[in-house]
Specification:
Length: 144
Amino acid sequence: MADLSGYYSTWSPRLLSILRIVAAFLFIQHGTQKILGFPLNPGDQWASPEFLSLRWFAGVLELFGGILLIVGLFTRPVAFILSGQMAVAYFLRHASDGFWTILNRGELAALYSFLFLYLAVVGGGNWSLDWLWRGRVQKLQTEP
């Protein structure tokens, strides 16, 4: 059997970055739908959320937190906050409708919560502004 450790060590951080970017792109759509009314299904009505309401806070976190995650800036703290937001969303909106997430329609909130918790621990991968920033800081620290 071939030794794939080099392959895995090369592609793991890259795929972590791709996972972060795709998840953030999907997550941003929830924020744009709440805050900007886009995208909407044909025939759906949109009403701007009341300023400082729970829906407004959720939309702001989803939109701006998603943008920060796409570029990989402050990935760990942003992902931690978004993980908590999704846990709260699950328990406030979905858990009371039953245990099974497929029935209470809470599977996305649960999945996002654990995905963001994972990103809060491992960071954004090597295709992120955090990675670039950390490399520059380390380079400055090692220069005489």
